[in-house]
Amino acid sequence: MIGSEVEGVEDLAVEQLTGQPHLEVEVNRQAIARYGINTSQVMDVVRAAVGGTVIGQVFEGHQRFDIFLRFLPEFRQDSASISNILISSHGGQRIPLSRLASIREVIAPREINRENNLRRIIVQCNVRGRDIGSWVKEAQRKVKEEVKLPPGYFITWGGEFENQQRAMRRLALIIPLSVILIFILLATTFRSLRYALLIILAIPFAFIGGILALFLSGQYLSVPASIGFVVLFGTAVLDGVVMVSHINREREGCSDLEQAVLRGAMTKLRPVIMTTLTTVLGVTPLLFSLGTGAELQRPLATVVVGGAVTATLLTLFMLPTLYSLLERKKYQK
């Protein structure tokens, strides 16, 4: 099986459909033509003898009960008994079923599953040691190269991969929209696009830290990790808002730009570190969780911790420096 050749696959299994013995009755059309019997006559008798048929109803007051007709067990318990069922012809002859059809026992599907009115069979597996997205991509490539599907057949990739793709499409819309809304709020609050852009720079730094933390921990970008980025963006921007707001207040009472920036950065050093520390400590238990749901909690916590560290470094060192450069250029103009 091709799926077993892809690295990371475990517990590969195909949906078990076969294994149910069936009795197959195939009518010999030439034989029934000699006796003037059609196929439906033969199959109606076999159906009534083996499966039974309703021939009427019995009424007891307001209740109705079907009258069910079927051969006794000894006349339908095996293929030999069924082959002796007599079929009446239009001429009054009674011909054994064995002279009109071939009867054999075959192994056939126990059930036929359908989805959207189409027959389907499931091949399922677990993925270990790599992300689902890259595994599916490699498996799709191998299937395309090595499998030629008959007309009318097609393959769909579902399960957790389908859910992940659906969630990623939504997050691809939600994350940019969140960044845009944050920028609008910042520009409205500070009444300055320059300050808004300065603070929004924390988001790329937070993103880099989150990706780096995933890489170092051997994890992959997943839906929980993407949600962690949304949480992280808010925390990173909050530190920038605190820093820029306090520097602006310091400048109101100090004409020296560099002195105001330095004093503001030093004053807010402890609050920014404490904000980051409380965030990191809050999600640290999730990093070491081993119980149910750990595979969802760990990527989220990894992103938040890694991104919070890099975003804090930006807020404490890069943001005051960039603030000074922007303001100096403004006054030079």
Explain how this protein is built.
This protein is of the alpha+beta class and 333 residues long. The protein has 3 domains: 1-17 and 114-157, no CATH class; 24-110, 2-Layer Sandwich (Multidrug efflux transporter AcrB TolC docking domain, DN and DC subdomains); 167-332, Multidrug efflux transporter AcrB transmembrane fold. The protein is 58% helix and 16% strand. Strands 1-10 form a two-stranded antiparallel sheet. A two-stranded antiparallel ribbon has the order 2-7. The two termini are 70 Å apart.
List the helices and strands and how they pair.
Layout: E1 9-14, E2 20-27, H1 29-34, H2 39-51, E3 53-60, E4 63-69, H3 79-83, E5 86-88, E6 94-96, E7 101-108, E8 114-115, E9 118-119, E10 123-127, H4 132-146, H5 160-190, H6 193-200, H7 202-216, H8 223-252, H9 257-267, H10 269-287, H11 294-332
Antiparallel strand pairs: 1-10, 2-7, 3-4, 5-6, 8-9
Helix pairs in contact: 5-6, 5-8, 6-8, 6-11, 7-8, 7-11, 8-9, 8-10, 8-11, 9-11, 10-11
Can you give keywords for this protein?
about 15% strand; Multidrug efflux transporter AcrB TolC docking domain, DN and DC subdomains; Multidrug efflux transporter AcrB transmembrane fold; 10 strands; alpha+beta; rod-shaped; about 60% helix; about 325 residues; two-stranded antiparallel sheet; 3 domains
CATH fold group of the largest domain: Multidrug efflux transporter AcrB transmembrane fold
Number of strands: 10
Helix content: 55-70%
Strand order of the largest sheet: 1-10
Strand coverage percent: 15-25%
- Report the span from N to C terminus: 70 Å
Q: Helix count?
A: 11
Helix/strand/pairing category: alpha+beta
